[in-house]
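Let us work through a complete example step by step.
Step 1: write down the sequence.
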Amino acid sequence: MSTHRKRYANVAGAFALAVVLASCTANDPEPTPTGAPSGTTAGELSELPPVEALQAEIIGVVDDYAWARVENDRFEAAVAACMQEAGFEYTPEEFVADDEESDTDSLEWARTNGYGITTYEDPEGGEDEESEPTANDLYVEGLSDEELDAYWIAFEGEATEGEDEGEGEIDLGDLDLDELDEDGDGEIDLGDLDLGDDEELELDEDEIELGDEEFELDEGDLGLDGSGYGGCQGVAYDALAENPLPYDAPEHLEVLTLLDEMYAELAVDESIAAAEESWITCMDDKGYPDLATTDDAQYIVFDAYDAAWEQVPEDAEDIDPELLAPVTELEIKVATADYECRESAGLEAASTQAQHAAEAAFVTEHREALVAFFEDMGAALKS
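Step 2: predict the structure and record it as tokens.
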């Protein structure tokens, strides 16, 4: 298992950006910068949602991981430059995409696996996958203890002097919570704690919940910047913030905000609402009444799953398969009914039709701003 864990920016965003940034027609790591993408016919473009079709016309087909890959590469390059300035070797880590998964959003999959709540099986059996050591792993292994400490300080940042010396810290192991709960109501009165001159309570734990109060360590006490990372990681995140990719650039904020608002309005589209009412009636007929939205079906399974876990002894390492079996049976029945009702209610067709209509109107009104955005996206992919 690699000891040098890859860290890169999370580019998962709102549904609007997911639609804009990923193409569903191919996985081409080198999208065409202008014109229709190679291998994509005019007919195929016409079947795409209008916003995605406009993107394809301008920058070509973009695979699902394009932007995670770009941000990772920028981040790793900045880390490498910073570490080299600090006197260490650092090889930028390559982006590794998740393994391709089968279509889990279908009736066929639901009939066998439900929603994947209780039926999911870790392909690695819950164990970390063994992998070849990276160049950074090998470099770190060759450092002395003193050099290793300096390496990680440069990479992750250094705690402040007060934290290193343990000044003002409270070891939770030294606290008698029963004594602090003077009235016996099960909650700790914070007035019983000495918070010090700055009225701040510093804890060894990153986060601890006491009654209804929650405390978090101040990032400044850990040598972190506003991104939550210190050292060269913090420098890299700051570099990304100073030179953002188009979807984070202020000049495109207005059109992307409007795009998000347009997608939010789809949730109350009359045709989708009518299809969802048909779905609710269908689920009621199948023995699942009192559902308000399509999301509620899964909560039937989650509630049963939680109830099963409540029967698990505290010292047990995992849930008894006999407790899980009826939940799995319920999950497959509910999921199968759910997807059968989605099909009979025409929910997907209604959603697709509403999306295409809303996007067509949006492209007509905001075409110039969208084109500018996509052109910048194409340039970023080529940089």
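Step 3: interpret the result. The beta strands are 169-170, 202-203, 207-210, 213-216.
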